[in-house]
Amino acid sequence: MRRDRLFLFDIRDACEKVARYTEGRSYEEFSSDEVLFDAVIRNIQNIGEAVRCLPPETRSLRTDIEWNRIVGLRHLLVHHYFGVDEEIVWDLARNRCPELLAAVLEMLAMLPDEPTA
Predict the structure, then answer these.
(1) Would 46 disulfide with which of 4, 14, 19, 67, CB 3.0-4.6 Å?
(2) Cα dist. 106→64, 101, 102 in Å?
(3) What is the pTM of this model?
């Protein structure tokens, strides 16, 4: 089983990709670029899946994060993809992912390093 740190690394990596993909882009560019939109959606799904795997004790390090809503969003994106609002995804990409990234980096700093085998 993957350890908590690895799930946090997955969240970090996906947030960083979303930031790179949307950096310097306008909402109009984002909403008209099918590949960009799909890439952002995929990484938000990855974030939700990694959050789903985080145990409650790790989530409790940051009680201000709405962990259950992140997982719920993942389910929505996977199962109702064609009904996704582009403006909501844009807001998530540009505002919520950076907030989550900052929180995850703080959490990683709180967790002890894993011993190497």
Answers:
(1) 14
(2) 13, 9, 6
(3) 0.89
| C-alpha separations of 80 from 2, 21, 40, 73, 90 in Å | 28, 23, 16, 10, 17
Strand, coil or helix: 95: helix
- What residues are annotated to the active site? 74, 79
Domain coordinates in residue numbering, the chain: 4-110
User: CA–CA separation, 10 vs 17, rounded Å?
Assistant: 11
pLDDT score at 75: 85
Instruction: Give residue-wise pLDDT tens across range 2-43.
Output: 589 999 999 999 999 999 999 999 999 999 999 999 999 999
